[in-house]
Amino acid sequence: MMTIIVTGGAGFIGGNFIHYYLSAHPEDRVICVDKLTYAGNLSTLAPVMDNPNFRFCKLDICDREGVFALFEEEKPDAVINFAAESHVDRSIENPEIFLQTNIIGTATMMDACRAFGNVRYHQVSTDEVYGDLPLDRPDLFFTETTPIHTSSPYSSSKAGADLLVQAYQRTYGLPITISRCSNNYGPYHFPEKLIPLMIANCLNNKPLPVYGEGLNVRDWLYVEDHCKAIDLILHKGRIGEVYNVGGHNEMRNIDIVKLIIHELGKDESLITYVTDRKGHDLRYAIDPTKIHEELGWFPETKFQDGIKKTIKWYLENRQWWEEIISGEYQNYYEKMYGNR
Ligand code: NAD
Ligand code: DAU
Asked: Could you say which residues of the chain have pLDDT below 70?
């Protein structure tokens, strides 16, 4: 039996990971550490709150004293660090909290791992650390040896964290792995991000704000496939290694938006082209050969099925996202989209 600390488990991917992990490994114990920022939502964890192998702990990963006390009490066998400030647009408005949580928080978690017996540490990173690829070179992909070359304060903070994680292995021998995944979609995705924002706005007959001309390309992966990849890396990955995770599912933003409109039976007149994101990355595309060949991972959910499942989830769980968009989110939305 293993005890694992999952940080950021009240967020989108961490929450999906906890649901997946507790059913895949019912014998293991999972401790969720989450500060419950605007992006953390306890209702995401409601289905597991009564599970005797689950504990929720409201804690900032930068709180050294609190983190060390939790390690002392729980003696974890592994840490998976999902906790982060994750939205590129917010990082452009206010970079500081990104440096704090994404870099200092990562260092704090790893210091605790070192102090309590060299605990196994996995860092959930992103393909954004590789920067972007040109739109007219479909032959190019990110591999694990593509140089780090970031565009936004968000991606720079994630890259800073990755470098620290690798430094902790080389300097202190901390047993680490890193996964760099492409764009996820699925249930419990916070409605500031493209897919859930477009679903929520469509359902409310609100304008659909497409940045620039909508030609930027992202490589979409169903969130459960990402969770399975992390589980495999945790148990079978080679220590010290980076694994890219992605599903060869590149799509232009405008095509995603039109697909959502058609699935929901709405009209394309809802599309509103707005001022582009500053420094907007053109294209992300992952080469997942390494994780496929070493660990046998491959994406199981096809996009046409995953997007239908996702839309169905948002239709059936209106309370989850309506509560979010009726609160502080409205101020964010007005600030971000009001004069765009
Ligand atoms: P999210 O914003 O939905 O959730 C982040 C969670 O972290 C929230 O529950 C929040 O409360 C918590 N958190 C934030 N700061 C914290 C702190 N200081 N201490 C403790 N908890 C804190 O993010 P997400 O989309 O689920 O992303 C999770 C991780 O996966 C991030 O590290 C992100 O960089 C990475 N990632 C995301 C994607 C994607 O498409 N969403 C793709 C690749 C990698
Ligand atoms: O690639 C992995 C990354 O994917 C993760 O590391 C990030 O945490 C995650 O937020 C995501 O970043 P993106 O910037 O790619 O995701 P976002 O949903 O913000 O935007 C996707 C694309 O859609 C991007 O090209 C910008 C565009 N967009 C986004 C929003 C919110 C719009 O056109 N309109 C919008 O309103």
From this structure: none
